[in-house]
Design a protein that fits this description.
This protein is α+β, with helices and mostly antiparallel strands. It contains 14 helices and 10 strands.
Length: 406
């Protein structure tokens, strides 16, 4: 009896060793990566789903049969279900194709089956299926989703439909989509994505949002730029007041508090050799010129949203050090819709005690942007300025146009 038990145990061990060797040989063959080596692996281990999936080439007559056998052995083999779906689609059997592909989506919760289904419904022109699986694919996508976004834009040119039906209300998804739109230069459709992102992740993605606002301002897209800028202000992403040019609120940060960020509608400090700008305790700015600056240079520039036709008055409080009457420091105001040489310029700023000054300018019909610039331009016959200008504050007031212009 004992001898029989030992013989059975020995037989089991030999059988185990045999199958271990067979599986090892089959795996080694399968790693060859060809249909021929996979077929040899199947000959050694006939009931392995992966080997059966690889046994025939795509498009071969026996391909569908091998895939059917593979999923019968392993119903969770999503790659086989997807390929069966694509084969059925190529043969015009759309019902079977949908069933196979959706089976892949049920057994595999990763991105690829959902992306495959989105593409299938795109080809079929099935809006409900396309939007459902596109959103599901995006929810599973941790990396670059540009291909999926492009597919959505090929399916629909309605930015609100894409945003509402596909993009999840989460800051990481919204910022990825916003960056895609900016890379594609779709500036106007990006407004809705940016405005949805601001309350969810405005502080975290402040740089992206301000870059977007810069581009809108640079393209003179006043409405979208104001929408984004004002949302940033309302939600505390930027410590500045909202703007409303129709109500005469066009100037940003007139007290220079906080120190200008050089973004969007805030003051932009233009880097120029020999010129530096610093904040002053309690508010204001100090501009230093070391005498080695160029013949002319912009120092501060602000793009302001305006309405036209209208008249405006810019007023400023200042004092200078080391500057004579022809200091070369002045304000220049112009409607950006007009010619570059069509501007209004203030008298030169000069005075060792605090004083004020002002300059009036007009915007034309249809104006949406004007430019305010603090500039230096050396007056003929003078030496380059070596001194300083302190600004305490700037105000801009909209003046009612003359009755004839109303």
């Amino acid at each position: 009896m004992q001898q029989t038990a030992l013989l059975l145990l020995a037989s089991a061990c030999i059988l185990g060793i045999y199958w271990t060797v067979q599986f090892a040989r089959a795996d080694l063959l399968f790693e060859g990566g060809t249909a021929e080596t996979a077929a040899r692996a199947v000959a050694l281990v006939p009931d392995n789903a992966r080997y059966l999936e690889g046994r025939s080439d795509y498009g071969s007559p026996e391909r569908a049969g091998d895939l059917e056998k593979a999923v019968a052995l392993n119903p969770y083999l999503s790659s086989a279900w997807m390929e069966l779906g694509l084969i059925a689609e190529s043969e015009g059997d759309f019902g079977a194709a949908r069933n196979y592909l959706e089976r892949a989506g049920r057994v595999d919760k990763t991105f690829t089956p959902r992306w495959t289904l989105a593409n299938y419904y795109f080809r079929r022109g099935d809006a409900e299926g396309f939007w459902t699986w596109s959103r599901s694919a995006l929810e599973m996508s941790a990396g670059d989703a540009a291909a999926l976004y492009r597919l959505c834009w090929r399916f629909s040119d309605d930015p609100h439909e894409i945003l509402n039906r596909v993009i999840p209300d989460a800051s990481d998804h919204l910022v990825r989509y916003l960056l895609f739109l900016l890379a594609e230069n779709r500036l106007e459709p990006a407004v809705a994505a940016a405005r949805r992102l601001i309350p969810l992740g405005g502080q975290e993605h402040r740089g992206v949002l301000l870059n977007y606002c810069d581009r809108l301002v640079a393209q003179r897209m006043a409405g979208p730029a104001l929408d984004v800028w004002n949302d940033l202000a309302h939600h505390g992403v930027i410590p500045l007041d909202p703007l409303d040019p129709a109500a005469g609120r066009s100037l940003t940060n007139g007290r220079f508090t906080p120190f200008p960020c050089s973004r969007g509608f805030d003051w932009k400090m233009v880097a120029s050799p020999g010129v530096s700008v610093a904040g002053v305790r309690g508010g204001g700015l100090k501009v230093l010129l070391n005498g080695r600056q160029g013949e002319q240079a912009d120092i501060l520039v602000q793009s302001i949203p305006v309405t036209g036709p209208a008249s405006y008055r810019l007023e400023y409080e200042f004092k200078t050090t080391g500057a004579g009457r022809d200091s070369g420091l002045h304000w220049r105001c112009r409607d950006v819709n007009q010619a570059a040489n069509s501007y209004v310029q203030s008298p030169d700023l000069s005075g060792s005690e605090w004083g004020s000054g002002g300059v009036n300018f007009r915007t034309g019909a249809g104006a949406r942007f004007a430019s305010l610039a603090l500039r230096y331009r050396r007056a003929p016959g003078t030496v380059p300025l070596n001194g300083a200008l302190e600004l305490r504050g700037v105000t801009l007031t909209r003046i009612d146009p003359p009755a004839a212009a109303r």
